[in-house]
Amino acid sequence: GARLSYFGEELLPAARRLGARAAKAKAAGRAFEAQRCAAAESALWSLLPAFCRWPEDAAEAFPSLAPSLGSALSARADLRGPLTEALRRLIKQARAAARSDEDDEDGKSDDDDDENDDDDGLFDEETEAKRVAETAAILEDRPDSFTADVAAAQTTAVAKFSRNFLPILFNLFVAAPPERRGELSATVGAFAQITDSATLGGFFRTVLRKLVKVTSDAEDAADALKEGGETRSARRCTFMDLSLAMVPGLDSAARDLVFKAAKPATTERDAAVQKRAYKLFAALMRPQKVGGDKNMVSWLASNRDAAEETLVAGSGVCAPAARRYRLRCVAAILPALMEREQAAEETRDKNTNATDPARTMRSDSS
């Protein structure tokens, strides 16, 4: 692994000097010099993701580097690519290493845990397969020195700055055009999975209040919220997408709020809004590990009836753009519906036997 402290102590100061020189040259009209210095500065920043690949000292180096990363993320649109990639890599590699070691440990007692596997059918198979493949790819070049302890320390160090990075990422996400939000959404999602539930819940409620405000605003209202898009529909989609990025880290109470916000939109005539409502709905149905808890939290397990009711209500008004995500919801809830139907059939059979003594006697004699 690389030493992240080397980037902070050697390359970051050099990048700053080059940036200052480029600005000075540009102000003086020396365009060629400004261009060369700016290119050199960008080249140094582009090395940051490589230094975040299995670093041996992230727990010690990240706290001193984080303020500079946050400032650059806010002020330099041209550097957001390597910055967000570096942050995601620090989080994803540490989480993948920790998860891999947990799975290895859990594998020793798989025979004792079969009774906890009832929710396996609730996973979206395509998404889970993608996650497993992604984790395997991340761990492919994991060095032996990157132990579970190193991974935990790295996660803790980065998580301490979630309350600093998440507001920056939110503002950038809302201000960015939809086609430029992918890397920001992925970075929000990465932070959501390492941020404690209370902190993330506070940020989520802020986003949710804006979503509720946009939803209730008239298109031409004087006090309408204007951030997030040119139209009311675009603004609703913006805050629904931002909520979606945060779902993996939300606790049960926050997930209930997501459902309440998404449910009415599943019958919207606006196809873009309806599509995002079903995306939120599908995300809720996937069990998640929340707040570092080793146990899976399944929102669907305690909300099957409400989920079924919502799917039934939207069956006749599903827009073509939303069908893919609606089908994911149906696939997630189907095992539970089949199980309930089977239980109902067994109950009916018992009641029939109880009211038909002759049939009961025949059954007993056979």
Features:
69% helix; two-stranded antiparallel sheet; mainly alpha; 366 residues; globular; single chain
List the helices and strands and how they pair.
Layout: H1 4-27, H2 31-45, H3 48-51, H4 58-75, H5 80-106, H6 125-139, H7 148-159, H8 162-175, H9 182-192, H10 197-216, H11 232-246, H12 252-262, H13 271-284, E1 288-289, E2 296-297, H14 304-313, H15 323-355, H16 357-365
Antiparallel strand pairs: 1-2
Helix pairs in contact: 1-2, 4-5, 4-7, 5-6, 5-7, 5-9, 8-9, 9-11, 10-11, 10-12, 11-13, 12-13, 13-15, 14-15
Q: Can you characterise this structure?
A:
The chain has about 375 residues and is mainly α. About 70% of the residues lie in helices and about 0% in strands. It is built from 16 helices and 2 strands. The chain has helices spanning about 5-25, 30-45, 50, 60-75, 80-105, 125-140, 150-160, 160-175, 180-190, 195-215, 230-245, 250-260, 270-285, 305-315, 325-355, 355-365, and strands at about 290, 295. A two-stranded antiparallel sheet has the order 1-2. A hairpin with a 6-residue loop joins strand 1 (about 290) and strand 2 (about 295). Helix 5 (about 80-105) packs across helix 7 (about 150-160), helix 10 (about 195-215) packs antiparallel against helix 11 (about 230-245) and helix 13 (about 270-285) crosses helix 15. The longest helix has about 35 residues, at about 325-355. It is globular. Mean pLDDT is about 85; it is low at about 110-125 and about 290-295.
